[in-house]
Amino acid sequence: MMKMLPFLQSGPIGIRKESKDCIEENRQLGNPSTSVAEQVPVCPEPSEDWSKDQVKKSEKQEAACRHSRTSSITSNGSCASAGESPEKGKKGLIGILKSALKKKKDSKPLSVKQIMDLIEENKFPDAAQHLIVLEKSLSIKSEEELKTSQQDIESVYEILKRKVFDILKDSVLLAAAKPDLLQQAVDALKEQEKEDQNYLSESLPDQNMQSRPRKWKEVWMATVKESVETRMKDTRRTPTTENLSTAGQNLLHMGKTMKEDLTVVVQLIKQLYPPEFNVCSTYAELYHNYFASQLKKTAESQLEDKDIYLLLSWVHNIYPNDIRKDRVLAKELEKVKLGSLLPSSLIKELEKKYLGSEEATVKNCLSRCLETEIQRWKKDQEPEKLDGHFHSELAILAIQNIHGGQKRADALSAALGEEISPCLSRELAAFLKSYKDAFEDFKEKNKKQRFYKPILIANINNCRNFRDYAEKNIAEKDDDKVSILSTLSDIENSGFDVLLQQLFAQLKPIYKKFTENKWDSSDEIMNEIIKTTRKYISDFQTLNDPFYKAVIEKIHVHLVKEYIVRLLKRRVSLKSPAQQQNLAQNVSKNAAALETFCTNHGSQATWLNSALPKLAEIIRLQDSGAIKIEVATLATAYPDIRFCISL
């Protein structure tokens, strides 16, 4: 009997059911559905030696005994305040302890059948408590009785254990649907863990308690692991997503399951357990470890390009941002050192594969875009107009592919975005060179097409979009930026040359009319030049504004240059100062007409406006020395005039 003393001292005191001081216990035991708390009888009256204060204190403790679920049950029908110790030195209390020990000899725990009834009624903590009491009662039995009773107890324990852990395995499902049932299972687990700790804390553990410690907490850990793996494997629970490969669907299922299940753990399951179980950390580590192990297997297999990208998306973006930083989970997951889903060496290997495949994908897309454009040219169809300007989809499609590759890399990580940027610039530079070659080939071979000029204009307009993208998105330190802008300038100027070729050819015979004997009628010649030019300019309005202004500037330069060439190409004999002044006046009038015409049509080449007036001033000069100085100054300001003078 003394072996029972530590147990009695650590919990409530059992009272004999035969005691005259207790309320009819047999009636209560006849109803096994009655909860443990309801089976606790009224405690005996205090002895006469107690003071009034002690009596009041004892009554309060007795009331707490009847209503508290935390009271330990040492034998059927026994009670005492939780945490009350006989060490307090109260004489009356010691008397009750001795009386309880004496009455214990004739007290009987619940039978196996009664405990089984509790299990069937899903009163798992009550059943666990009574099993503990029944287990402790074996200390006073003979060896033969002990063997038989132990077998019976172990059989009941196995039934209880199976039911409890079947429920705990489905914790995620039951947390919202049947929280009371889940709480019962958790409480039974807590009772067993508590009893294991009590047993291990004893200085001389009872040798008859060979089944202790039962290690239900370890079983719980294994059960949670099994539950996690089962749920992570069951891909049928996640609807199939269109365009996702099998690997992609598995990743989606595992990530979705982990996030949803951990949300249930944090919001509904954690509160059912004591802190020492570290419920959130346990679940989080198990989900993470399983996810990481499966991801590693996937990464080491043969993957399609899109699956490599998807894998890196989970590692760099979805997992750390959408799961670990989720507003519900973040606080709990910050306490757990989960780490990355993949080893850094494997991540680097995947990144290298991704960069290569992304560059190849962009290159192939650009090649297809150009081929489609070339086929469109061959059809000799008028290009579409956008806001009154001839338009081609080539630049838009090409830039979308380049930008898409950059955006996809940026979405994975800033480092990958920086790494792929020069690769994409290199592909754009190579593409534009191919585009330039195709454009030149079209120019030479398709001059007789009906829509030859509109197609040229549409391709010149393409350059604006390419130029804008390059200037805004390619770093100055990138060597390919210079190459890209240079190639675009070549395409633009090549197109301008073709567009202006016919105009300049038509103007040439008109300029020839500026001969020695016709300078007096230069106004009429200038009007004819302007009229002819105006007719062509109307066709150039389908160019985008920057290119329209550029072509008008080229026309402006050509008109001024050709005028100077005709003025200086042949010697003009001016026999008198009057003739000299008259020519200067005509040049000034022609200069004003050209300036007005070109400026009104959008030319911004204001630097040309003073060229002809300066020539007029030179013509007015009488001193040969002054003339030489002014000509030298003019040639310095306008280098092209040197060429004109040399003619």
> What fraction of the residues are assigned to beta strands by DSSP?
under 5%
Helix % is: 55-70%
Categorize the overall geometry. rod-shaped
Spans where pLDDT lies below 50 across 5 or more residues: 1-91, 100-106, 643-647
Q: What is the CA-CA span between the terminal residues?
A: 133 Å
Number of helices: 25
**Radius of gyration, in angstroms, nearest whole number:** 49 Å
Largest sheet: 2 strands, antiparallel
Helix-strand sequence: HHHHHHHHHHHHHHHEEHHHHHHHHHH
What structural category characterises the helix and strand content? mainly alpha
Tell me the total number of β-strands.
2
Could you give a quick summary of the protein structure above?
Residues 18-88 are annotated as: Disordered. This protein is mostly helical and 647 residues long.
Plain-language structure description:
- There is one protein chain.
- A hairpin with a 2-residue loop joins strand 1 and strand 2.
- The protein is built from 25 helices and 2 strands.
- It has a two-stranded antiparallel ribbon.
- It has 647 residues and is mainly alpha-helical.
- 68% of the residues lie in helices and 1% in strands.
- Pfam families: Sec6.
- GO terms for molecular function: SNARE binding.
- This is Tumor necrosis factor alpha-induced protein 2 isoform X3.
- One of its GO terms (cellular component) is exocyst.
List descriptors.
2 strands, disordered N terminus, mainly alpha, rod-shaped, 647 residues, two-stranded antiparallel sheet, SNARE binding, 68% helix, EXOC3/Sec6
How are the SSEs placed, and which strands pair?
Elements lengths: L4 H5 L15 H5 L22 H16 L23 H14 L7 H9 L3 H13 L6 H27 L1 H7 L1 H23 L14 H18 L12 H24 L9 H21 L5 H19 L6 H4 L10 H35 L5 E3 L2 E3 L2 H19 L1 H32 L6 H22 L5 H33 L10 H16 L7 H25 L7 H24 L10 H10 L3 H14 L1 H8 L1
Antiparallel strand pairs: 1-2
